[in-house]
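Deliverable D4.2, example record:
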Amino acid sequence: MTTYLLAGGGTAGHVNPLLAVADALVAREPDATVLVLGTREGLEARLVPLRGYELLFVDKVPFPRRPDGAAVRFPVRFGRAVRQVRNHIRERRVDVVVGFGGYASAPAYVAASRARIPVVVHEANAKPGLANVLGARRAAASGVAFEGTPLRGAEVVGMPLRPEIVHLDREAMRAEAAAAFGLDADRPVLLVFGGSLGALRLNRAFADAWRDVVDAGWQILHAVGERNDLADPGDPAYRLVPYIDRMDLAFALADVVVSRSGAATVSEITALGIPAVYVPYAVGNGEQALNAASAVRAGAAVLVPDAEFTGDRIRSVVVPLLGDATALERMRAATTGVGTRTGSENVLALIDRALGR
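Output generated by the structure prediction step:
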């Protein structure tokens, strides 16, 4: 019986692919032991136990970014975190460590190396985090979600996706999805969303140009976020909702998507074969634009910089695209070159290789 230790967390971008791989391991090997390593502060502290997996803790030790007191204390604190993981590895007889980035991964990679057990790395973003950059240097196998991700020795395996996306039959679910959102299943739908809090840039642009989209014969399903000041115009073709609990239903209904370009968002949209217009979030180190780059290069998506996304750009870019059936069909076909629903299975293949199977 194999014992797997999956390390990662902090954000949904690390936790969700980790849980998808955990589910795939259990489905394939019901007698395996699947453990998760995380911090008490990260999102994993809530999501992992809810999913039924045992969560082992390690101290959160951020890498120092400047020469200050934290940098002075870092070696001691990091060494303590590595010892914590080594104790977990020894006590639970772990056979392999699989890291997904975040604070828990870095000490896990070092501890696994010292314990002489194999390491597998998965990087979800096109711009890898520091923990995975370091972990990949000695990893037995590394996988990335996006082509062109600069991670040593990595191969493109795609994103491990949640089961409701992997198994989604969009055509079969369309009528149910239309009924759930109060839209017409026989008319095309533009899905607009920007994360759980919405996206102010997208909201303001569509507040200005929604009528142009509707006049072009399309309906809009727009998740505006739970805190917004948009007034609902009351048009049955423009459905405003604060939040979408069932993204599988939203994707089943969507003929085109306008959204931010987080790693999971891009991976799910391309895996489902939906043409997209991405408006990357401009804050951070530019990873959202990089996440969208492979889909844009393949012709599966269009990118509009955040600062340029206005009502006028909807009228000049989005509305003409919605009216071009040939272009949309080309984009749908192009998604097959960049999207995959087998990310979890591909990561399992890396794990098997690392274990010498």
